[in-house]
Amino acid sequence: MAEDTETDTWYVLRTFSNHEKKVRRYLESEIERIGLEDQVEEILIPTETVFEMKGGEKKTKEKTFFPGYILLNCTLTSDLRDLAEDLPSVIGFLTTGTGDEPTQLREEEIKRILGKMDRAEEMGEQPEMPFKVGDPVKVVDGPFDSFNGIVEDVYPDQMKVKVMVSIFGRKTPVELDYLQVEHEE
Known about the structure:
single chain; Alpha-Beta Plaits; 4-stranded antiparallel β-sheet; elongated; 3 helices
């Protein structure tokens, strides 16, 4: 949008959860309509691409790091603040506990958030953590197809789970890929 200026800083705009993209669209269109583009450098919703298994199929989706929050790199004037806070689905800017002035993100906070997004992008599609210890699951693929069991351990870096299944009446640990199991209905 605008060129970097010395006064550009990052602020957090609070929204209803799952309304972040809608609020960003509203905000971008209103900023353009009113002519405040020179005050806004970037509107950011920190996300990562994850996949999950639903009905035995791999589905890709965007996962928001901070549901209900949008980051704005801007020169926050009263006009811009009023515009943003009056949009549908907006709660307001994140403020300090003592006042109603919007809190600026510290440089190390924004670097950490941007770094997390960069790492997520470099790593590519990541599985959403679909299972936890104790979850009842059904094996849907492989030699143990149709067996039921309980998740004993989760290995997110390998995208595997250890499931205790009953084979010939004995509890046996079986290591399976996330794609080979689904939550028991």
